[in-house]
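protien #1 (seq + structre)
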Amino acid sequence: MSARPPIVHPGPAARERHALAWAAAVPLDFTLARGEAAETGLARAVAAAGCDSACVEISGGRFDPFGYVLPAASPDGDHAAWYSATVAPEGGVTIDRATAVVGRRDGAGFVHCHGLWRDAAGRPALGHMLPPESFAAEDVHVRGVGLSGALFESRHDPETNFKLFAAETALSGETRDRSALAVTLRPNQDISWAMEAICRDAGIGRASILGIGSLNGARFESGLEMESYASEFLITGGRLEETPDGARVRLDIAVVDMDGAIFHGRLVRGQNPVCVTAELVVLSELAVALSHAD
C-alpha cells in the first residue's frame, strides 16, 4: 500500500476497486472542424467510426473560445475535492497535448479531457478541459484508438458522489477481439500496482497504457514530489513491460496541482494513489502497431 494517507470520500467504499471491459481496438484518425465544439466533434467522429468509446490525443491546434478548470478543495462535505472557477483565456489556447476519453452520459456523447496548452501570450497550463465550452478555431487533427465492445459510461458513484466513467461491456456485446482493455480505477490504490494486478489477471504481459485521472500526491523516480491531494494528470508515456521480476508498469505523466503548478516525470511504483478516478486503456502489442500505422 502507498504511504500516502488515504483520501476520505463522502460515501461508503465500493467493494470492487476497478471496472473493466474487453474491446477490439480500432485506429482513429480524424479532424475536428473549425467552429466545432470539442465534445460534439469527438463524439461524432467516434460514433462515425462505429466505436462505442475511445481514447484519443490532440497534439496541436488552436481552440477559441476555450474553458478549463483546475483541481481545488471542496467547498463543503459533499465531495473530497472539487474544481476551480472556470478559466477562459482571452484569445483561446494552442494545444500542446491533450488526452480525451470519449464515452456516454445520459444517452449522449460525453468527453473527459485533460491536457497541456498555452494561452495567446505563450503561458503554459495544464487542466481539465471543458469540452462543451471549447471550440476548434481551425481544423484540428486527432488520433487515437476507438473501442468496439467496451464503453466508458458516466454514472453516479456513491463513494465519491461524482458522476464518473465506469468501464462496461457495451450494448453491442462482448467482442472476441481482445486487443484492448478499458479500465477504471477507484480511489486510494496505487495506480501502477493496480494496473499490474489487472493485467496479470487478464493475461497481458506487454502493452501500452493510455489515459487520464487524478492522484493524491505524486512521487517521481527523479525524486520530484507533488504534495497536492487533488490533481489532474494525463499519461504521456505508459507501458507494461516484462522484467526478470515479472510485468511492471512504467507511467510517465504530466500532472497539475491545486496551485496550477505542473509536474512531469515517471511515477514511482507504490507511491501514487488514485484520488477520485483513473480512466485507462490497455493496448496489446498488436493494437499498438495498428494505432501507429500510416
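ok now protien #2
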Amino acid sequence: MIDDRRSLQGVLYGLAAYVWWGLSPLYFKALTHVPPPEVLVHRILWSLLLLVVLLARRGELAAVWRAAHERRVLLILAATTLLVGLNWFIYIWAVANQRVLEASLGYFINPLMNVALGMLLLRERLRPLQWASLGLAGAGVALLAVRLGSLPLVSLVLAVSFSLYGLLRKVAPIGGMAGLAIETALLAPAAGVALTVWAIDQRLVFGHGSRSGDLLLAASGLVTALPLVWFANAARRLRYATLGFLQYAAPTLQFLLAVVVYGEPFNRTQLMSFSLIWCALGLFSIDVWRQSAGRRSTHSPRAS
C-alpha cells in the first residue's frame, strides 16, 4: 500500500512538472512585448534568487558552496551552464517568433537524441527497436530538411542542447536544484551586466512598462524552479521508464497549443515528418516497456 501511494504521488508530481512545461508557451507568449534576451536575463536572476531561498530553507546552501569549489563539479557545470542558457534562449525566442511547433518537435526528438548520444559518446549498444526508432526519426528530420530546403534548426538545437545537458548532469555529483543554482550563479554576472547596459541605454522593459508585465518577469524564477522541484520529487518515487513515458506530455501540449491555439501552419510535409517521429517514439516506448517488463520478471520471486 505504501509503495502504491508513493507511485501515485510520483505520477502526480511528474504530470504536474511535464504539464507545466507543456503549457509554458502560454507564459512566454504573455511576454512577447519583452525582447527574448531580457526575458532570459530575468529568468536567470529571479531563478537564482528563488533557488537560494529554497536551498537556504532546506539547509543546503553550505553543501552547494562546497560543491561549487570542487574542480570536477565546476568544470561539468560550466559546460551545462552554456547548454541550459542556450536552450532557454532558443525556446524563449521560438515562442516569441511563432515557432512553438518547431520547439515541440525538438522535445519529441529529445529522448531519441539521448539514445543516439549514448551510442556515440558512451558506446552503448543499441537494440533493434532502438535502431529502427533512430532511423524513423532521422527520416522525419531529413524529410523536413529536403521539403523546406533547410534543417529544422530550432528543433535540433533544442534537442541536442537538452540531451547533452542531461548527459552531463547525469555524471555531475550534485542534485538538480543545487546544480541549477550554481548554473544560474555562473550566468548571473553576465545577466547583471546586460541589465545595467540596457538600463543605461534606456532599452530596459522591466520597470518601464505595465505592472502586470513586471510581475510576469519577476515570476520567471517560480516558473523555472517549481516544475524542477516537482520533477525531482517524481524522479525519487518512479522508475525511469515510467518517468520517460510521462515526458511526452510536455511536447504534446506544446504541439496542441501551436496548432490549435496559436494557429501555426501545419502542412502535409510537417504532418508526414511528425508522423515518422511519432512512430519512432512508439517503437522506442515499446522497447522501454519490454526492457522494464523483462527486469521485473527477472527480479520477481519465483512461485514455490
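The CA atoms of residues 51 and 180 lie 8 Å apart.
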